[in-house]
Request: fold
Amino acid sequence: MGVEIKPFGVSCNLQCRYCYQNPMRDQKTTRPSYDLEKIKQAIQASGRDFTLFGGEPLLMPHEDLVDLLQWGYQKYGGSSIQTNGVLITSAHLDLFDQYNVEVGISLDGPGELNDLRWHRNRTQTRNSTQAVEHVIQQLCQRGRPPGLIVTLHRLNAVSEQLPCMNAWFQSLDKLGIRAARLHLLEVENESIRRQYALSQQENVTVLLNFAQLETQLTQLRFDVFSEMKRLLMGRDEQSSCVWNACDPYNTAAVYGIEGNGQSSNCGRTNKQGIDYLKAEDNGYERYLMLYHTPQEHGGCQGCRFFLMCKGQCPGTAIDGDWRNRTEYCGVWKQLFEELEQQLVKEGQTPLTQLPLRPLIEQQMVQAWKQQRTESIHRLLAWLTQEDQPTLPDPALYKNVGLPQVCRMSFVDRAMQSTWEPRLQSIRRALTLSSMALVGIWSSAVFTWVHAHDYFELYQRCAEQDLYLQEYPNLSPWIQTAAPKHHLGVIADSETHAALAGAIRNASSHAIHFLLNSTEPSSTATESVLTEPEHWYFNEAFSPLGASLFPRGLTIESEARKPYAELRIEALIQSGFEVEKIWLETLLTSSLQFSALHGIAEVHTPFFKCSYPTMYTKVKHQWGHVSV
Ligand code: SF4
Ligand code: SF4
Reply:
């Protein structure tokens, strides 16, 4: 994977009607500036070669472009550029030759078929399309045929247009073009869907038409068909990102670098107009939940193509929510079925017909639970080796087992450097001050202790003749875990002995009496799913340790306010006034909470985060974020 450099962010000279970057453009009214040195440093730090991307990368002043491409040539032997091609001049063509630049051009067809790539007015749009077609010819004549990206929509891919598109691809084939990537329209709103999107059947028809056309072309290939066929045969070594369990918090296939050197994700995941920083780790919660979620709820449960497709690109998810499968499920499923039949006719046995498929799925799911991914071909080789591997009990896979982690992505570096340390301080303050509740709120105080704070709390407790003890076996009573935290109880030695006895005897009543909590009823929903009436009760950040209520503690509704007041009092008494203000700032800030398929997501003006919650088949949401 290379990195995508976006010197001017999403700024563009065209106004394509359907562009997936329009939500980002709507948020940014001025063209961002860039710092060439910071960009180079970020490329070097990534250790990868780069593609100039945008928006439109050729908006860059020529001398800076020369500087960057020359640097890329000296460092990596070349680079790439993805452009709409309108601004390409003969000086650019010389540069591409001189510095070995691979060119990718986005064009949806000849003449009026490209009209959605709008350039000020109709005349200018047609002139620009013609200019780009000329550039493609010139690049081919120079022995540097560009790769094409062609988006399919109502202006170029309904049945009346197909003869024209077929003739166009035939002429491109003769010209020397070798690769064209077909994109289904990424629909950002209902107006775009109404005006430009193809129906499911139209998408299938046009794709099958191009699959047929490909067999008549000499060298031009639409990579999607061969890729899907290879996937069906378990060969996913070189498959593209959309089939590879892409994490929307850290898109592995796209490492964006903004003009200020900041990292960003693939723009297709950006539905709020914010280029969030990449999350620290990779996560596969989307795929775990899609595997277990019934298809009628937006998941992929039971689909025989799941190993290959995995719910496809999160950027095309139903309702723009990455927790759903792709809205193009019907298209991909029909295409997989078609290609599956072709393979059978050719005498091959696709993976979908192998008894081994469920086993491979289970191993893949197991890897995701461990926050890593696997490739089909490696698992296939492993499961068919001579010494049959010993496999875990299949019952294990029935447990969804979403990793208990809270994943974060900051709005930008400034927010990260402000809020990361603040969150740590809030968490520490709440943990350390919880000991002030012993004997006031309850005889034994239950708290989630982050590994970083454990020793300090232990010492402070000892100074006051209290004990901090871990109680992993409290889990049947405190059902919701807090990511990366230990479940600890602070009390005197006598109360600890009473608690240990109560746990031994499974005496739910005694445990809740000691903790001054109530037993959650079997029908109780997580309190975070509904909008809190007061900021005291905002538990949206409890997995980050930033909540007045420890995750999983159930308190009688009339006792919640006194409990919250005690917690605030304890913060102040323990010398954490500043942390109390930061906590109040966070809990009173605008936020949007949503939960779907067992994954909660919270958007704030500072960051977004996601974590496991109770399974819901439909989306629960509350709040509104203003950034
Ligand atoms: S969001 Fe979609 S297009 Fe972007 S990297 Fe992920 S799978 Fe690829
Ligand atoms: S074809 Fe549809 S149901 Fe099957 S894995 Fe893909 S998105 Fe999910």
About this structure: Residues 295, 300, 303, 305-306, 309, 311-312, 325-326, 329, 332-333 surround iron/sulfur cluster (ligand 2) (CB under 6 Å). The longest strand covers residues 485-491. The two ends are 31 Å apart (CA to CA). The chain is about 40% helix and 15% strand.
